[in-house]
Amino acid sequence: MSPDCPEPSDRKVPKDSPESKAPFSPSSARAKAKGPIALAIGCLVFLLAPFILAGLKIQATPYILDLLSMVGLYALLALSLNVILGLGGMFHMGHAAFFAMGAYVTANLNLTYGWPILATLPAAALAAGLMALIVAFPVIHLRGDYLLIVTIGIVEIVKIALTNDIFGLTGGPNGLIGISRPTLFGYRLSRPQDFFYLIWIMVALTVILFHWLENSRFGRALKYIKEDAVAAEGMGVNATAYKLMAFVIGAAWAGMAGTIFASKMRTISPDSFTFGESVVMFTIVILGGSGNQKGVILGAFLVICLPELFRDFQDMRLLAYGAALVAMMIFRPQGLWPPKAVQYNLPSPYKEKYPREGSC
Amino acid sequence: MAHFVEQIIYGLTVGSVYALIALGYTMVYGVMKLINFAHGELFTLGAFVGFFFLVTLDWGGVFGPALAIGLTIVMVSGSTALAGHLLERVAYRPLRHSDRLAAVVSALGASIFLQNVIMVVWGAQYRAYSASLLPQVIWRVAGQSFPLIRLFVFLTAILVMAGLYLFINHTRLGLAIRAAAIDQGAAKLMGVDVRKVIAVVFIIGPALGGLAGLLVGVYYGQINFNMGQLYGLKAFTAAVIGGIGNIPGAMVGGLLLGLLETLGDAYVSGAWKDAIAFVALILILVFRPTGILRERVAEKL
Amino acid sequence: MDRGVIGVSLAMILGLTISLMAVAGPQGAQAADIVKIGVMAPTTGPWATEGQDMVKVIEILTEKVNSSGSLKGSAVRLVIGDDGGNPKTAALAAQRLVTSGVLAVVGTYGSAVTEASQDIYDEAGVVQVATGSTSIRLSEKGLKRFFRTCPRDDEQGRVLAAKVKSLGFTRPAIVHDNTSYARGLADETRDILRKAGQKEVYFDAINPGERDFAVVLSKIKAKDPDVIIFTGYYPEAALILRQKAGLGWNVPIIGGDATNNRSLVELAGQAAAAGYYFVSPPGPGDMKSAAAQDFFKVYEGKNGGLPSSVWSVLAGDAFSVIMDAVINGAEDSAAVATYLHNTLKDYPGLSGAISFNEKGDRVGEVYRLYRVDDKGQFVLQN
User: Are B201 and B193 in contact (CB under 8 A)?
Assistant: First the structure.
């Protein structure tokens, strides 16, 4: 029980859990209501950012929007990694491999067969998911750091394969160029604000979907496995199957992020899918608050924007960034915005007996 | 056949450097369950400190080669040990009781920081150790040539590792380290000063990494600020192959990885050799999920 | 608590945005007499040496332009964007340079990095003059405002193959390092040699960043070539030279322009580097014009040595041709592009006469053959 255990009033009641219908509903509806309102206003302001920035006649608008798109892309990647790392508790440091898979599948379908970009989204997701299934199946039982090194190995192997022009599909070290921009109802998305909306709408959909997933039977099973795999197995939860499923879902999402990335950059090369990229995604999740989607998005803001902010330091730029990472972890070891512990309403006699039960 | 023997010798030299660095990863991991991602940068630091004394201050000219190398070894291991100790104090100690992944990210941050400190201090350019520091003796056996210095690199690494092995297995402090690696709580109850053990581990590990950096500098003659990335990753892989947390495992893992790489390079393809090494790593872990020499720590679920 | 966290993070995001605006430079009314030139260079990351040299060279030239008064009252200001040697960072750097209102951009070094930024400059209509990106396809896309002061890989491949032949070698082994540049040059050279009936005896990659190439050398040696063609960069070239000498094997090596770096000899050791050939545009030491001599005197005085390679000098030339356009009345990017395409002829740059063809490539023969002599000097051959 650590001191930063949330106040009892913060308890979260999953909507579809039977407990929410119990008579012991939380009394602090007031405190509960304000958070989401503030968040909603924040989101609204954010979504209007292109208009606000343009309205203020800020010259750097395209740069800021591009940067925010980049933040959104990494938020997408980190949210997908969060399913594996935050919910599933699997140390996965090779997410760039699936990101690459999606990007290269999109590029090939688009360049060779002329598929429109958005039509390649499901194909990219499928390919990345399938790849995850194949590579994760033999290693999913590895624990902790052994899984970590295997996933690093996977991302290295993928990069080497891309560089060596495997099956003649990757263009070798030069990569592939001339990927189309996405078109939506006949409109070609190309300006920074187009991508800003495309990416952030995808982020919003992802958040909603993963939120639902987190509180579903699947999500609860994953949390159980993460807390205590042996007990979960004992209760009849098939840990391997659930972990594998989490891995595949996370990978498929990274594949879709790859689609967006390929069409935004219009040129992809192995340099964009290195181990270093995987580390960036990993850092976002842990720094933001592994397991909490809001935290992960906040993490994406920090990790992507900080090096940009430090641009004026020139060659001291990354030095400052490294120091900031260490400092943030020391001051917020749980991440900047950790998830609240799940607390279920218990009948009151039980509550009196164990007043502050809950895993923090 | 001679060609094959030649490849084996190359593999062992490359592997012994990996092993030396891997020891630092494995010792820290054994005691703290922490992957010290900044270890590769301590290796780089060792190479640059050696550069400072041997090239910038030209100790080789001042003291003569043998004494200069001896003194440099002392300075390099001393300063990397100090850096490792500071690293532990600043970046890891506050996180000892937190989530393990927090320490991993802190380590990643420290790695970026250290690498760029080295870049700012010594510049981004490649630096050269003088080529004349070590005698270039070539040994010819059955029509193949073996540079004698490879043997020297290999023997140095083996000697250091043997010393470490004796230290861990035959001294009281070594016993304490082993005890803390198995169960910190129990070790504490038995009167082991765990803080001291951690401090010692963070002195020995970085010192060995720094020595490896010096060795690479002297032997290959060229160092640069991001050389630790590749060596760090390879050495970490080696530690895991051997069974992370296990000291003989790091040696076996290092040598094996060196051999895998060279044989892959020699008989398959240079472009794919790292992929071959990583595939081998994955296969080893699939069949022996905790490395070749099993990790000697209590199962933690 | 929830509210607090939301408040804090909203404040953080707001703060980030505001400071980003500040970073992105002053907004609104621009002083009309400031000409902004962007410099996209890898000042961090693996090619930080090159990037930092590029900035140093251009800064000296900027000072010179500003103090000479040739801009008639206006002044040049540099906006520096670090591309980190990485395509993704480059895309952001490019967008930032574009939005800070630069007239033209100098840079950058790596071909893949330049490629990631080309579209952004093109869509914004900003002139880009690349400095070290030799990949062929960069100028084959029909971009109207893309130029480069460096030659292309096909030109280099042609010269490299020709020199291999004229030096009398018939059994070449080709080694590259799987980077975009080295692979391209290796392929180009191999194809030309094959057409001339000289099939290579060996073709494979090494991994950049690695230190031990003994295995590669022993593999090559088994094929008994009479020359090794290495198309990668100078650090690996130095290691190969050094380790080859360590084996007591004296097959000649010939390299490409990425090995034209003064550190090569230092890294390989004088004895091991002696006899090494490479093709390259003339290096800083061989730029004999009076202007170049003056410039390098200033540079040496400031930085205690010459620029380590030719690429940063080409960045200086890129800056100079843009300035020439501005001095001759070009007020916007379109005018600069037109000037560079049509008007500029044989501009006296540090690296020699500069003109561009319709693709934006530099015209004229620039590659020369060099040989490293026993004292470690790069000696121009003919």
Answer: no
Rounded Cα distance, A276 and A258, in Å: 16
Does residue C342 sit at the A interface (CB-CB below 8 Å)? no
Q: What pairing do the DSSP bridges indicate for beta strands C172-176 and C227-230? A: parallel
Residue with the two structure tokens 């920081």: B113
Q: ipTM for the complex?
A: 0.85
The answer for B 210-269 residues in CB contact with A (under 8 A) is 233, 236-237, 240, 244
Per the DSSP assignment, residues forming a β-bridge with C227 are C172
Residues comprising chain A, all counted: 360
Q: How far is C62 from chain A (nearest CA, A)?
A: 18
State which amino acid sits at residue A207. Answer: V
Distance CA C101, CA C147 (A): 19
In Å, how far is B4's CA from the nearest CA of chain C?
Answer: 10
Describe chain A by its helix, strand, coil percentages, rounded to 5: 70, 0, 25
User: Positive or negative, the Cα torsion across A278, A281, A282, A283?
Assistant: positive
What are B223's strand-pairing partners? B127
Query: Under a CB-based contact definition with an 8 Å cutoff, are residues C200 and C173 in contact?
Result: yes
Cα C27 from Cα C33, distance rounded (Å): 15
Q: DSSP state, B290? A: T
Tell me whether domains C31-151+288-354 and C154-280 share a fold. yes
pLDDT in tens, A102-119: 999 999 999 888 888 888
All residue ranges of chain A with pLDDT < 70 are 1-35, 58, 311-315, 342-360
CB contact under 8 A, A318 and B35: no
- Find all residues with CB under 8 Å of B182, minimum gap 6, and list them: B296, B297, B298
Which residues in C102-112 are b (16+ Cβ under 10 Å) and which e?
A: bbbbbbbbbbb
Separation of first and last alpha carbons in chain C: 76
Q: Domain limits of chain A? A: 42-274
Pinpoint the alpha helices (H) of chain C.
Answer: 2-23, 48-68, 87-99, 111-124, 153-166, 180-195, 214-222, 234-246, 263-268, 270-273, 290-303, 310-327, 333-338
Q: What's the confidence (pLDDT) of residue B253?
A: 92
CATH of domain C31-151+288-354: 3.40.50.2300
Q: How far apart are CA C160 and CA B46, in angstroms?
A: 39
Instruction: Please name the fold of domain C154-280.
Output: Rossmann fold (3.40.50)
Does A286 sit within 8 Å of B289, measured CB to CB?
no
3-state secondary structure of C306: coil
Longest dimension (CA), chain A: 68
Measure C63 CA to nearest chain A CA, in Å. Answer: 19
User: How do the domains of chain C map onto residue ranges?
Assistant: 31-151+288-354, 154-280
Q: What is the pTM of this model?
A: 0.83
